[in-house]
C-alpha cells in the first residue's frame, strides 16, 4: 500500500505542471511571433529608407530640370542678343526707325523682353522698342557701363527707369539685363545694345515645371541668389534672405538632396541644383531649390507600412494556428501514453500501456514503457511473495524507474523541439534565398550545381530541376572561358587562393538561349566536413553597361553633324595606322575646310553656318566608302581617313570626287550659297616610321598650300609644303 501511495503522489505533482503539448505549442508560437515581428521591423526599415531615397531623387530631378530649363533659356537669350547685334541696321546705327522696327519684331516674338534699346557712346538712348526711353540717358546704368567692351549679363534687380512706364502688374517689375557692345564693319565702337529680360520669364519656366509636378507631388520651387536672396518662390519669402541647409549645400555641390527643417519648424525633403556652372555667363549662378513636406513625400510609405503590418499580422496568425494544430497532432500519442501511465499509477491495474506506432521515437518509448510496466508487474508479484521488509526496496526501485521514464520523455521532447527549430531555420533561409532580387547559385568542389533560386531561373533561363546536378561551367560560362574557370577552381582548392573569391567582378554569363548577359558576380565559399561549398550572387547589369556605352558614344560624337569628333579622331587614326602595318596597305589622310565659310556665317548668321556644316558633312559621307572614317575636328575643319589604298591614285580619286560634290550649290533656309573646299592629302606608308601627329601636320600643311594656290583644289604633302 505504501508503494501505490507514493506513485500516486508523484503523478499528482507532475500533473500540476504544464503538459508537453502546452510547452511545445508555447515555444513554437513564441518562435513564430519573434520571427514575424523581426521580419516586419526589417521590412519597415528597408521600405522607409527606400521611400526617402526615392523622394529625394525625385526632388533632385525636378531641381535639375528647372536648372536645365533656366540655363537653356538663358542660352537662347544669349543667342538672340548676339544675332540681334549682327543685324546690319543695328551695326550701322544710323536709322532709328529701322532699328526700332527690328526691336519691335524681336519683342513681339519674345514678350518677356520688357525693353530693347540702343544707346550711343555718350549714354543716350538712340532707338528702342516702341520708342520707350528714347533720347533719355542711361549712362549711369550698370549694364551700359559694363558692356562697352564685352558682352554683359546682369543679375536680378528692380526696375529703375522703366517702373513708371511699363504696365502695372500684380508683381513688381524685376529684370535680368543683357547687353553687348556694337561695332561697325570697320571696327568702330557704335554704342551698346541692351535688353531687359522680365523676371516673368523665370516665373513662366517655373509654372511649366511646377504645374505637372505640383499636381503629383505638392512641391515648391525657389530660385535663390548667391547671397541667399529668394528671387522666386513663396510670396512671403521673395526678396528675403534664407540660410537653409539645402542652400548651403548648393554652394558646395552642383546638385543633390537632403532633409531639412523649414523656418516654421516643418520637416521638408529638398532637392537642389546650381545654374550657370557650364555656361558662358558664369555671373548668373543661382540655386534652384525644390522642396516638399516630408509628410507628403512619405505618404506612400505610410500606406505601404500599414499594408505590410496588416499582411504580417495575418501571416503570423496563420503560422501560429498552423503550429498549434501541428503540435497537437504530434503530441497526441504522448498524451495517450501519459494518460495510460497516470491511470495505472492511480491503481487501475487493468489499464494496458498502448503501443503507439505514429513515429519511431514514440513507438520506442511506448514499447519500452510497456515492457517496463510488465517487468514492474512481475516485480510486484515477486514482492508480494516476499516479506514485508522488502517492500521499501521495491518502492525505491520503482521510483527510480519512474524517474528514468520521465528523464527519457524530457530528452525526447528536447530532441523534437531542436529538430523543429532546425527545420524552421532551414525553411526561413530557403525562403530568403528563393525570393532574393539577385540570382543565387551554389556549387560543390566538382563544379556541380546544388542550389539554384527562382531569380537564377528568370535570369539564366534554366529551371532549378534542369540545373541541379549539372556542371555550372557547361551551363552559364561562355565556351572560351570554361577552361580558365576550371583551372581557377583547381588552383583555389589546392592553394586556398582565388581571384574571384570574396570579390565583386563584372563578367558575361551565358543564358540557356545562347545569348550572353553582362552580370555583376560576387563569389564566396563555406568550408564543410565534406569539402567546400561555393556560393555566388549574380546581378544583371545590362542597363548599367548600356548607360556607360551611351556616355562614351556622346563623348566621341560631334553634336551638330553627328560625325566623330576630335577625340574620336585621335582614337581612330592610330588604329587605322596599325591596320595598315598589319595588312600591309597604304593609308591616306585628307584634311580640309570650307572655302568661304566665314562669309556665309557673317552674312547669314550662325544658324546658316551650322546648316552649311551639316550639309557639307552629309555630302562628305556620301563621297567616301563605308570603311573610311569622316570626322569634324573643329569649326569648318574636317578629316577623312582612307584605308586599304591600292595606289596613291585611289586617294586622288576620292579627293577629286569630294571637290566635285562640294561645287554644287548649298540650299540653306536663308539663301542658296556656292562654296568650295581646299583639301590637303598625306599618305602613310607602312614601312615608314611616321607618327600620328606628324601625319596630321603634313595633311594640314598641304591643305594650307591648297588655299595659297587659289583654293578649291587638292594639294599633296611634299617637302616644300611641310617645311
Automatic annotation (TrEMBL):
Matches recorded under InterPro entries: dCache_1, DGC-Regulatory_Protein, GGDEF_dom, HAMP_dom, Nucleotide_cyclase, PAS, PAS-assoc_C, PAS-like_dom_sf
Boundaries of every GGDEF domain copy: 585-719
Phylogenetic lineage: Bacteria, Pseudomonadati, Pseudomonadota, Betaproteobacteria, Burkholderiales
PAS domain ranges (all copies): 425-496
Principal location listed in the UniProt entry: membrane
Domain PAC: 503-553
EC number per UniProt: 2.7.7.65
UniProt entry keywords in alphabetical sequence: Cell membrane, Coiled coil, Membrane, Nucleotidyltransferase, Transferase, Transmembrane, Transmembrane helix
Positions of transmembrane segments: 20-43, 308-326
Cell location: Cell membrane
Enzyme class: transferase
Record-level Gene Ontology MF annotations: diguanylate cyclase activity
Ranges in coiled-coil conformation: 373-435
Protein name stated in the entry: Diguanylate cyclase
